[in-house]
Every structure is written in C-alpha cells, then in structure tokens.
C-alpha cells in the first residue's frame, strides 16, 4: 500500500512538473487521456448548458408515453469521432435537425471553459457535420513543428496555427503573398522559414533585399539571383518580366503542337506542360518593399515607377508562368504612391505580424478579411513571431513560425545548394558567393522538373 502511495505521488509530481515545464510532453503522457475522458463524461451536460441540444423527437415522446419508458431528454449532436492529436482533441459532430454550424461556432468559447481546454475552434466539414478542434495548451508559446507534414511541390509548412494544425504556404493555390509587420515583429524569421522550407524543393529562389542584403545574402548558395539595392532590383525585375515572356512563348508553342492532337490536354500554365519541358518555378522574395518605392529625385522616381510596373506585371501574369511573389515590409499602402494598391490587390496571401496602428492592419486585411484586422491589432508586443494569416476566402488564423536562426537557415540552404537552378536569363544577378551549381535544362533555359 505504501509503495502504491509513493508511486502515485511520484506520478502526480511528474505530471505537475511536465505540465509546468513541458506542456507538449504532458499532453502526450497524461493530458490527452484525461481531456478525452473529461469531454466524454461532461459532453451531455455541457452541450445542454451551451444551448446545443434539441428537444426529443415527437415519436420518441409518443413511444415513451405509450410505454413505461422514461421521458427522453434533450439531444446533443451525435459524436461521430473523438481523436486525440499531438496538441489537442478533434471532435467530429453530426448535427441534429434544426441545428447549424454557426450554433457550434458561437459556443466555442463556452466549450473551451466547460471542457477546460486552451482553445476551441470549429468548422463545417459538410452539410450537417462539424469538426471541433480543441487545443490542450498554448501551442504557439514554444513552436514545435510535427516531424511529418503534408509537403508537396510548391506547398511548404511554414508555421503552426493556434489550433495545432500546420500552416502551409501553397503557391499553386495562392500564388502571391504579402507579409507585413512593425519592426522587430518577426517578418525576417517568417521569411527565413519560408526559404528553408523551399530550399529542398525544385524551385528557383530570387531575392531582393534592400536591407543591404543582410538577411538574404547569407543564404546565397540556394539563390539563383539576388539584388541588394533598388538599381539592381529594377534590372532584376525587368529580367524576370522578360523570362515570363519566354515562358508564355513556350506554352504557346506547346499549345500549337497539342491543338492538332485530338484528346490531348492543352497547356494553360507551366504545370500542364510535360515534365521534361516544364520551366522551373520561381519564388521572388522581396524584403523591405517600401525601399523600392521611395524616391528623392526625378531619376529615382522613374526607377520606382519601373520597379512597381514590373512587380504589377509579375503579380498579374506570373502565376501561369510559375513566377510567385512573396513581398515583405512594414507598411504597404497608398502612401507609397501609384500602383501600390493595384499590386496589393494581387497579393492575396496575407500575413500580418504585430502592427503599430489600425491603418497598417487595414493594409493587410481591410480588403480581404475585415475580421482579421482586430486580431492583428491585438497581437501582444512581447509575443514576437505571432502573426495573423488570411487569404481571399475571408478565413484567418493566428500562427507562429518556429524560431529558426539565420545559422540554421543558412545551413539548410548550403545543404541544398546543388538544387539551385541556373537561370541564364538571370545570370548577371547570380550571387558571387560560391555561386549556384548549374542544372542543365531544356525549356527557357531552366532546370527540368525533379520534384
Ligand atoms: N517565430 C518566432 N518565435 C520566437 N521569437 C521570434 C520569432 N520571430 C521573431 N522572433 C524574435 O523577434 C526578433 C525580431 O525578429 P525579426 O528580425 O524577424 O523581426 P523583423 O520584423 O524582421 O524586424 P525588422 O523589420 O526590424 O527587420 C528575433 O530576433 C527573434 O528573437
């Protein structure tokens, strides 16, 4: 009996210690089981208290009246599945007649308190079926990405969402992105994660870093082209526009061949081309974009117009040619001059780190996800790296990228330096440091698809 008591005390002490110091381990060791039991035991009463039940059907009442059976109580949504995950629980519910997904969404905060979870969100999976995702602890406090992620060509894991799911940057679904945030809010760390995630993929990385290259140039071995000042950037962007024209010509040439072949697919973008002809996709990362839009004299103004025009053309036409923009800055509004709002409208993948004012939050989300504006303003200054991510569907999430150091990102880029495609169209902008290795390729003088 004494040994049993000692063992029990030790287990409780270990659980307490884990919960305090290592909440992720606590969750895996104890938390998931306890929380699942708590949800199952409290489920009927909690759903009733949250107004998520419906009265019993008339035939049940009639049956109870006709027999000696007890009168049936109110009915909660049926549990289809309760699945513990690495960070929480996922509850799949079948709604009762008369209920809708909004009822569950409106009760998320009450469910969070009642089930003693850290966070609860819900979404409709299909008509009448709702998924409630619960997190057991603050997963954004110390971000740990899962070992296995659903990475695909041009779809990379970049951060963790507050509901424990992985946040992916999917270039084929949302081609162009805009990342905003005040100084020291975590933009560079986010961009670093993006580069490190893209490095093992079959993709050409092109960088424009107007912070004199301090962020992107150290990762030069994995970059096919780099520019560190507005003059170089203007020329690099012109070269990219010319490359885009070549890719369009290639697609047209392929269309001319396939047009005469009955039942053959007609290519409308690089992904429809046969793999041996497909030009390598390009991600263009622009850091501190406002530097490209500032000018003090007429000549600089002409350069600025040239840069913004090239960016707008790439944003409007780049998707089919496999050219994707990833623009980063502190603010990106109409005060930066003409063409900026037109460019911003094309950058539909939005991420906002902590911003200093509501106007900056509106620049990020005002036009696509107004609900996210308040969430962006509420990001606490001490939680660097926390961001709100939204796209043109209107949905948004709180996310945080893992704290990847520049050293780690550089190591990843160096490890994958042999994957750096050599794009002759961008040859003058190839970084001198070590230089990318040449990957021979046919179409538009780029690398063959290997992803
Ligand atoms: N995801 C994160 N997790 C933990 N800490 C972070 C994260 N992102 C950023 N930080 C912390 O915040 C600091 C500033 O981050 P970062 O350099 O990315 O900001 P920034 O927005 O790029 O700033 P600036 O605009 O001045 O370049 C980092 O040194 C790091 O300590």
TrEMBL record:
Pfam families in the cross-refs: FtsK_SpoIIIE (PF01580)
Residue ranges crossing the lipid bilayer per the database entry: none
Record-linked SUPFAM superfamilies: P-loop containing nucleoside triphosphate hydrolases
Residues binding ATP, per UniProt: 181-188
Domain (FtsK) ranges: 163-362
Gene Ontology molecular functions: ATP binding; DNA binding
Keyword list, A-Z: ATP-binding, Nucleotide-binding
Top-level lineage group: Bacteria
Name this protein carries in UniProt: Plasmid transfer protein
Organism: Streptomyces curacoi
Source organism phylogeny: Bacteria, Bacillati, Actinomycetota, Actinomycetes, Kitasatosporales
């Amino acid at each position: 009996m004494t040994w049993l008591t000692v063992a029990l005390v030790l287990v409780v002490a270990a659980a307490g210690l884990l919960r305090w110091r290592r909440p992720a381990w606590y969750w895996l060791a104890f938390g998931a089981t306890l929380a699942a039991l708590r949800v199952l035991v409290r489920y009927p009463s909690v759903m009733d208290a949250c107004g998520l039940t419906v009265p019993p059907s008339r035939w049940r009442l009639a049956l109870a009246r006709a027999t000696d059976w007890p009168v049936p109580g109110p009915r909660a949504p049926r549990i289809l599945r309760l699945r513990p995950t690495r960070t929480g629980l996922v509850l799949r519910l079948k709604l009762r007649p008369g209920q809708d997904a909004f009822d569950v969404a409106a009760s998320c905060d009450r469910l969070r308190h009642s089930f003693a979870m850290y966070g609860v969100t819900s979404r409709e999976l299909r008509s009448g079926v709702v998924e409630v995702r619960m997190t057991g602890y603050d997963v954004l406090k110390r971000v740990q990405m899962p070992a296995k992620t659903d990475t695909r060509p041009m779809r990379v894991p970049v951060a963790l969402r507050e509901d424990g799911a992985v946040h992916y940057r999917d270039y084929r679904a949302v081609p162009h992105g805009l990342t905003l945030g005040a100084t020291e809010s975590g933009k560079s760390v986010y961009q670093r994660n993006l580069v490190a995630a893209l490095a093992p993929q079959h993709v050409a990385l092109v960088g424009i870093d107007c912070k004199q290259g301090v962020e992107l140039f150290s990762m030069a071995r994995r970059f096919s082209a780099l520019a560190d000042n507005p003059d170089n950037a203007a020329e690099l962007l012109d070269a990219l526009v010319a490359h885009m024209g070549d890719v369009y010509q290639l697609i047209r040439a392929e269309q001319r061949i396939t047009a005469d072949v009955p039942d053959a697919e007609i290519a409308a973008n690089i992904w429809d081309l046969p793999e041996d002809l497909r030009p390598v996709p390009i991600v263009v990362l622009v850091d501190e974009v406002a530097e490209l839009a500032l000018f003090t004299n007429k000549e600089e103004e002409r350069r600025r117009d040239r840069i913004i025009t090239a960016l707008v053309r790439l944003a409007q036409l780049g998707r089919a040619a496999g050219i994707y923009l990833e623009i980063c800055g502190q603010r990106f509004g109409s005060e930066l001059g003409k063409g900026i709002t037109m460019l911003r409208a094309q950058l539909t993948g939005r991420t906002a780190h902590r911003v200093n004012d509501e106007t900056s939050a509106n620049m990020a989300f005002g036009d696509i996800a107004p609900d996210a504006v308040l969430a962006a303003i509420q990001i606490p200054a001490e939680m660097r790296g926390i961001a709100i991510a939204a796209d043109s569907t209107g949905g948004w999430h709180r996310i945080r990228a893992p704290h990847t150091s520049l050293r780690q990102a550089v190591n990843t880029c160096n490890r994958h330096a042999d994957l750096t495609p050599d794009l002759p169209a961008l040859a003058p902008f190839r970084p001198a440091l070590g230089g990318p290795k040449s990957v021979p390729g046919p179409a538009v003088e780029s690398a063959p698809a290997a992803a």
